[in-house]
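Figure S7 source data.
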Amino acid sequence: MVSQEQLDDIFAIRWPLPHFPEDDQTPRHVRGAAVDDAWKPRLAFIRQLGAATADHGPDHDPLLVALEDLVAIKKAADEQIRLLLAYGRAYVTPRPHTLETLGQAAGLTPSGVSRAFGAKEILAVGNLTGRRPAAVEIDDHHPDLFPDDDSRRRCTWGGSKNNPCTDEPKYAVTDKSGTNWACCDSHLPGYLRSRT
Ligand SMILES: [Zn+2]
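Tokens for the predicted zinc ion complex:
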């Protein structure tokens, strides 16, 4: 059973209600809005708790759900940090951010920044933004060149998440980060087409 006491304690830790001292001059409606804001995530958590109890049984208490919730938030933030680092290094032009600058902002060493992302993150950023790093090399398409399923089957050099290119891949484009993309006839950049 979910104990109300434990739930209240977790709320007090995670989403403390705003405190207004006696002589506080904050207008009433502003105070009310601040309290409402603190209650929104609390109510969302109660819904989440209901789902978790249904999945894991009544022993899965609010403390465990709160921990799992925070770990998921942390994981998602780490993922976004990796994507932003990949973006800063491979997509920002004409002067990409340096490893030092990115490292300072992200709390990593320069070599930690390089290790934080790879082809997976480069591909994900391209998919989310519709942008591509500069191309440096082109070869004939071969499924073995690609660890990801997408590039084995379709053009990943063109398109984006909401508007993917489903054309048959004919070429393998290697970008300046060393990441391989599959490319159809129509998305092959003109200057590369002229070289083949
Ligand atoms: Zn295409």
